[in-house]
Amino acid sequence: QVQLVESGGGLVQAGGSLRLSCAASGFIFRIISMAWYRQAPGKQRELVATITSTGSTNYADSVKGRFTISRDNAKNTVYLQMNSLKPEDTAVYYCNLLQRNYWGQGTQVTVSS
After folding, report:
1. I need a surface site. Which of 19, 30, 34, 86 has the fewest CB within 10 A?
2. How does pLDDT run across 80-99, given as a tens digit for each residue?
3. Cα(67)–Cα(74) distance, integer angstroms
4. 12-38 per-residue burial string, b: 16 or more CB within 10 A, e: under 16
5. Per residue in 20-76, pLDDT tens?
């Protein structure tokens, strides 16, 4: 019943911005901590950012200061605002419930040099 649908990815030049969205359903969204992950080809999945039910956030060092995770509980949606994008940010980005494995299809982010 848990469904997670990521959107907002695309192709951008280095230094550009994207905002990813994750529409969630099938659970009580407002009380659940959420997270964004990413996986580049040939690499392990990486935790990018987390946000608790009350809005506390944490970020991987590689994205700190450039990415912002947020949530809109009225819309059951979590966002990832990505600024100052670098080629090394290229990956498939996934949202998920923290410490759970309800993986969707993700959204591709490609950053050109």
Report:
1. 30
2. 999 999 999 999 999 999 98
3. 22
4. beeeeebebbbbbeebebeebbbbbbb
5. 999 999 999 999 999 999 999 999 999 999 999 999 999 999 999 999 999 999 999
User: Strand, helix or coil at 30?
Assistant: helix
Adjacency order of strands within the sheet including 67-72: 3-7, 18-25, 77-82, 67-72
Which DSSP symbol is given to 29? G
Short-list 98, 111, 93, 101, CA closest to 20: 93
Q: Which long-range contacts (CB under 8 A, 24 or more apart) does 27-35 make?
A: 27/1, 27/2, 27/97, 29/73, 29/76, 30/73, 32/97, 32/98, 33/97, 33/98, 34/69, 34/71, 34/78, 34/95, 34/96, 34/97, 34/98, 35/95, 35/96, 35/97, 35/98
**Chain centre to alpha carbon of residue 93:** 6
